[in-house]
Amino acid sequence: MNKWIVGNWKMNGMMSSCRDLAAGLVTLEQEKPVRATVVVCPPYPYLGVVALRLMDSSLHLGGQDCSAHEAGAFTGQVSAKMLKDLSCGYVIVGHSERRAQLNENNDLIRQKAQQSLAASLTPIICVGENLEERETGKAIDVVLSQVQQAVPKGKCLIAYEPVWAIGTGKTPNASQIGEIHQMIARQNPGTPILYGGSVKSSNASEILAIPHVHGLLVGGASLDTAEFWKIAEAA
Ligand SMILES: O=C(CO)COP(=O)(O)O
């Protein structure tokens, strides 16, 4: 199966640094082409400027979130159709930061994923247990119920991101990642499953070699052009 390498820039950078990051990736892509599908997800205000840089490349653009509604009186929200209009092909939904900070639940996340599919975007639906759930042996059950409730029918990507591995430098071991990915693969046959949480160029190959890992969702390391490209080369 093709591999996906997705960079989630989160709320980082300003217009000039986002433009430079995108331009740097386009240069690297020309110098060192990769087999993987590479997607970058900049902050909303910089989607346009990044889209312009990516125009003549094979790099893809994604949003970091979208509204659960199609259009209307939803001040501050951005619709999946708008993202498509800005040339996005992908959108992250249900990131654990939004689940925790904004109380997003599986129903809302499924609605966002459905809006994305209706707008011809591929949703990247995030799931993952927190530290307490991992330590009390509930990881499998928590992730299973997130997948059952948040993933609609249709062409989606699922990203397994254990909350305790995000931005911490800690990663689960290969058997912990493999166990969760295998369970998701059984539940959603044919759906590509990405891993996210403290991915760097030094651990990318090892994680990509785990069965049922079809790509990586990268946070911090995606803000460094050379480092992110090394991760793409590992796929
Ligand atoms: O949240 C993440 C990607 O969505 C992972 O972030 P880090 O790679 O910084 O741990």
TrEMBL record:
This is Triosephosphate isomerase. The keyword Cytoplasm applies. InterPro entries: Aldolase_TIM, TIM_sf, TrioseP_Isoase_bac/euk, Triosephosphate_isomerase, Triosephosphate_isomerase_AS. Substrate binds at N8, W9, K10, G167, S198, G219, G220. The active site is at H95, E161. PROSITE patterns: TIM_1 (PS00171), TIM_2 (PS51440). It is an enzyme of class 5 (isomerase). It holds the Pfam family TIM. The lineage of its organism: Bacteria, Pseudomonadati, Pseudomonadota, Alphaproteobacteria, Holosporales.
